[in-house]
Amino acid sequence: MRALWHLVPLVLLAGLGVAAWRSGVAAELTWSSLARHQAELLALAAAYPLLAAAAYVVLYAAVVALSVPEAAIVTVCGGLVFGTLLGGALAVLGATVGAVVLFLVARTAFAEVMARRAQGFVERIRAPLQRDGFSYLLALRLVPAVPFWLVNIGAALCGMRLFPYAAATLIGIVPATFVFAWVGAGVGTVLAAGGKPDLALIFSPQILGPLLALALLALTPVILRRRRRGRD
Questions:
Q1: How far apart are CA 145 and CA 13, in angstroms?
Q2: Which tens digit of pLDDT belongs to each residue from 109-118?
Q3: The whole model's pTM is what?
Q4: Is the distance from CB of 70 to CB of 149 less than 8 angstroms?
Q5: Is residue 202 a contact partner of residue 99, using CB atoms and an 8 Å limit?
Q6: Distance CA 77, CA 91 (A)
Q7: How far is Cα 203 from Cα 27, in angstroms, rounded to an integer?
Q8: How far is the CA of 198 from the CAs of 50, 85, 152, in angstroms?
Q9: How far is CA 177 from each of CA 79, 170, 172, 202, 207, rounded to the nearest angstrom?
């Protein structure tokens, strides 16, 4: 029985996910729902700014930890309710907290399995991850192409350390998150008219180009280190 204790966080997280689905909360994360409730959300944020901000961070952390795919809607909602700067900052905080929770749950639940079944692979990548994990993860976070939840779990299973993981997540999600918050800050009239914001703009050359450049910059220490080793 004691050997199963490491699965408790995973079971709790899965239980919360089922509860959110059955309660209908997850189903409310839609553009039409945001359009219906935007006046109420703005009023609540104006009346209870600190409580509203804290509730938003908790909601965002839960969405990320439970790997709910509508995180972009929550980010836009933050920009709509709190504005670009505060909404983006709260979204970054919530996403980082949620990512750390999922990372710790995955590492706790599957550490023993990974150690037994993939010991050779894990041992081969452990040293590179300890040395360059921050740079690799920062590059992945800067380019929003790989599913966020997959990176969270993959980093945990590959043996990445917590602090570099949290730091790379916090820094790497800032650009794209603030782009979505900026969209949210001006999306009120679009939602009121029954429209939907075009989030594909994150992949437009004007935005994706700088993100790719930042990702390459994040990998520069790794590239230089490998070139030096190649000359030795």
A1: 25
A2: 766 655 555 5
A3: 0.84
A4: no
A5: no
A6: 10
A7: 26
A8: 30, 20, 26
A9: 10, 11, 9, 10, 12
